[in-house]
Amino acid sequence: MSFEGGEQPDQGHDHLVTTVIRPAAPGDLDAVLDLADDRRRQYAIYQPRFWRPAPDAAARQAPYLAGLIADPAVITLVAVTDAGLVGYAIGQLTAAPPVYEPGGPTCMVDDFAVADPGVWATVGVDLLAAVTREATDRGAAQVVVVTAARDDPKRAALDRGGLTPASEWWVTSGDGSGHSAGEPSRAAPAAVGRHEDA
Prior knowledge:
Blueprint: E1 3-9, E2 16-23, H1 29-46, H2 57-70, E3 74-81, E4 84-94, E5 106-114, H3 120-137, E6 142-147, H4 152-160, E7 164-169, E8 190-194
Parallel strand pairs: 5-6
Antiparallel strand pairs: 1-2, 2-3, 3-4, 4-5, 6-8, 7-8
C-alpha cells in the first residue's frame, strides 16, 4: 500500500513538496522515535505531570514501536517527502468495552505526530485519511485519536478529518488544584476524538 498524499508549499521556497504515505518499515524507526520524543517534550509543556517523559523514554519506546512496525495486524503509516520522514500514525484495532456497541471494532490511534505543527493541516490530515481508509477496510466502525487538549494544530486537523470530541481526561497537578497557581484552568491534557462513520 502506498498513498500519494497532498502537495504542500516548501516553507521558504517557491516549489511544492509531494508527500507519500506508505507503510512504515524497520528503517523508519529512528525517525519515528525522534518525532515521538519531540511530541513528548511538547506535551510535557501542556501538562507537566500527566505527559512528563521518563528519562529513558526513547529507549523504552524503541522495542515497542519496532514490534508495532513488524506486526501486520497494526496499521503503521509514515509520511515521507524528499527531505525525509515528516509524520507517522499508528492504529490498532480493538474491541469496544462490553458496555458499548459502536457497530464493530475501534481503530485506536495513540501514536500520531508530524515534524512541524504547520503541516498538521496537510500531512496530518492525509495520514488520518489513510489510517481511516485502512481501518475501514479492516472492518473498523470508528477511529479514535488521542491528543493533548492544548495541541490546537492537531485538534484542527482532527476536526478537518471529520472527527468529533468524545471524551476528555482531567488531572490534578499534584497539589490538588489541577493547575498552577495564578494559571487559568484549561481543558484536559488528553482528549479523544471519535469518527462516527469510519
